[in-house]
Amino acid sequence: MTTEQTTPDEPAAATPAPAEPTASTPAVDPRLLVRESGLAGYLAEFKQKMKNGDLGSVPVVLGLILIGAIFQGITGNFLNPDNLTHITQWIAGPGLIAVGIVFVLLLGEIDLSLGSVAGASAAIAAVLSARSGYSEWLSCLIAVAAALAIGALQGFFFAKIGVPAFVVTLAGLLAWSGLQEYVLGDKGTVNVVHDGVLANLDNYFLGDGDIVYAWGLAVVAVALFAAGQFLDARRRTAAGLTARPVSEIALRTGVLAVVALAAAYMLNQDRGLPLPVLVFLTVVVVTDFVLRRTSYGRQIFAVGGGVEAARRAGINVSWVRISVFMISAGMAALGGLFYASQQGSADKILGGGNVLMNSIAAAVIGGTSLFGGRGKTWSALLGILVIQSITTGLDMVHVNQAIQYMITGAVLLAAVVLDSVSRRTRKTAAR
Q: What is its main location (predicted)?
């Protein structure tokens, strides 16, 4: 029999390994600790997010407040109800195009053809209704269907053939501009039907100024938000996941209520709820639900985060790409219809100029990353509010349009720089 001896170089006993978490000692979600700490915990979490570059919508909201304060101080009537109503009317066209751009940017791609698609769609709708005798509703549906087909064609060349999206959509920018001129014919301008569907898209107020509609929309929006928050918390609690406490839900609902009711009050001081606001908000809410609450939305984020990883996860990458370009083209068609309504006609320059740039800028300024995989459709709303507020304020103080372009470009550059710095900071913080 041999006796094992311990040498000085060998430990007498092995150090016990840390105990693995068991069912009796479950791991604690850090977010739960934050919420249990009350207001101090939320402040600490907010500071940590800012430090890690997770800025969210904070810069945009602060920018909107600053813009309003500056132009109100200069003009004295920037925050008047009639001026705010005009801003809400004018954001629908570029805002809808920006919603489509958000989808494309989530893939980490770009679509340069959307201005031309908007112009071609408006031309098709105007010509069919004013010259060919089609009903306006049918004309608008045909125009949107044509845009969806355009998006599918461009998505096919990108997803199936492998042509870079930049090249495909640059070719589309030229091709659909040509289609727009061809549809309009030699005169180059087609007026929309007087007091028809297209004419009223941008100029109609619900209930002919009845204040019930604006108040009703605000109340319904707040009620639906609160119900959704409580339902989500209940489901998460039942599944054993971290859920927002009632106090946080109440605070979020209260903030939304203040904003919504204040907006309703201001609109009712003028002519009530404009139809463009209702349409735009509906599109933003629906598309936000699609992105955050459906498997299709998660697939878009997955493809934007990494194509190969998404493909290995079983996602049909080609279909996601094609469908996203269809969505962006469809949104451009809706935006083009609102532009035609604003100017009372479809012409060769509709969709040109700074339409595309403003829409891209709105998505980026609102917080959608140019690098893919991060953003939301609310970015389009916040971003276009910033751009339109700046444009309206500069118009009120009679600033030359060339200066307006330079200022808008500077704001866009600042947003991209902020996105790049934020992205680098998150990488440094191992996020």
A: membrane
